[in-house]
Amino acid sequence: MIRFFILLFITLFFSNTLLASHVERFRWQNGETYLVFLEKLNLPVRQLYYNLDKDDQRLTEEMRAGVHYQILKDTNNDILQILLPLNDELQVHIYKNGDGYAFEAIPIISTTRNEVLYTQINSSPNYAILKKTGSRKVAGVFVAAFKHSLNFKNDIRKGDELVMLYSQKYRLGQPFSMPTLDAAMIEMGSKKHYIYLNDDDRYYDEKAHEVEGFLLARPVRARISSYFTKRRFHPVLHKWKAHLGVDYAARRGTPIVAAGSGKVIYAARMGSYGNLIKIRHNDGYETRYAHLKSFRRGIYRGKYVKKGQTIGYVGSTGRSTGPHLHFELRKRGVAINPLRVVQVTTKKLKGKEKKAFLQLKNNFDERIDLHLNNKTPYKKPPRFEDMCYIYMMDDING
């Protein structure tokens, strides 16, 4: 059976009768749980949670505050379908099934568009981009790309210009997920500064020097309860012991993300670590995530994960006094303080790699110069409005 949610150009088949329906868009509230969500909408909790297997129940814990979801209702305002995005690739689909409702996890259908932004700066790049686009995500990717190489606070002058070339995913006609910065230029005084996303998924400047390097993401949204130190009084062993990582105190079940892209080399129980995930990154770096309640479905040894991808959930397994994440960074086996590591490696392209990059750079430069000279106006995506659609649902065999 194949089911499709119809918005704009997607067609849904339901029986053999065409019905008028409307779609409403909502934002997942901070602190809201999946069970509270079901109860709020008077949906059957047993069918849509307690009768699910453990893996599907675990999926429902991945809803994050701020995510937009959609509800399809008929002319009587009865719920027909709900789409709850969990990440960039997966969403929960709740749909009317006879006299009740059914639950399934399905892939997210999205399209990617190449976008451009030109603007002048009056105070800061962040404010200029935010004012023009209304998107904190677009502003965020620009600032993050330059923040380790440029000083925006002291060197920006009123009237300086910037150009962004970026790609943005769209889901159901609206921007979805974080945009990817492909290339950018910012003028500071009389000097222009550039950054380019190379084919190896790393950022380089106009001289083919890497500007990002290995940057760690915050593995969990939580406060730090214990810092990296060579000398710490252990709360369980009651003796002084090195604490070669950072602890984040968080509620049991809080999602944990990969701090960097890499390959999972361990995902199992290991002594005092409890449930442990190890990820091997480029240039001899390794991150560790300990005391996990459980691993996310599909996380296993040999799996390649991307920076920011959910890999597990906060727990208190192993030698632990309460729910928290113990996070470590190591280079060739030696523990490093993760909070002090912002840029731990740089790369300078040479030979064929540099030649290919310079061709890519020239192509980006031509586009940047075109938009800079034309002062290309920014086109905001249309606002989502409650709209009526014609939909059908049927079984498609084969």
Automatic annotation (TrEMBL):
<feature type="domain" description="M23ase beta-sheet core">
    <location>
        <begin position="242"/>
        <end position="338"/>
    </location>
</feature>
<keyword id="KW-0645">Protease</keyword>
<dbReference type="InterPro" id="IPR016047">
    <property type="entry name" value="M23ase_b-sheet_dom"/>
</dbReference>
<dbReference type="GO" id="GO:0046872">
    <property type="term" value="F:metal ion binding"/>
</dbReference>
<dbReference type="Pfam" id="PF01551">
    <property type="entry name" value="Peptidase_M23"/>
</dbReference>
<keyword id="KW-0862">Zinc</keyword>
<dbReference type="InterPro" id="IPR011055">
    <property type="entry name" value="Dup_hybrid_motif"/>
</dbReference>
<dbReference type="GO" id="GO:0004222">
    <property type="term" value="F:metalloendopeptidase activity"/>
</dbReference>
<keyword id="KW-0482">Metalloprotease</keyword>
<dbReference type="InterPro" id="IPR050570">
    <property type="entry name" value="Cell_wall_metabolism_enzyme"/>
</dbReference>
<keyword id="KW-0378">Hydrolase</keyword>
<dbReference type="InterPro" id="IPR040653">
    <property type="entry name" value="Csd3_N"/>
</dbReference>
<keyword id="KW-0479">Metal-binding</keyword>
<dbReference type="Pfam" id="PF18059">
    <property type="entry name" value="Csd3_N"/>
</dbReference>
<feature type="domain" description="Csd3 N-terminal">
    <location>
        <begin position="26"/>
        <end position="108"/>
    </location>
</feature>
<dbReference type="GO" id="GO:0006508">
    <property type="term" value="P:proteolysis"/>
</dbReference>
<protein>
    <submittedName>
        <fullName>M23 family metallopeptidase</fullName>
    </submittedName>
</protein>
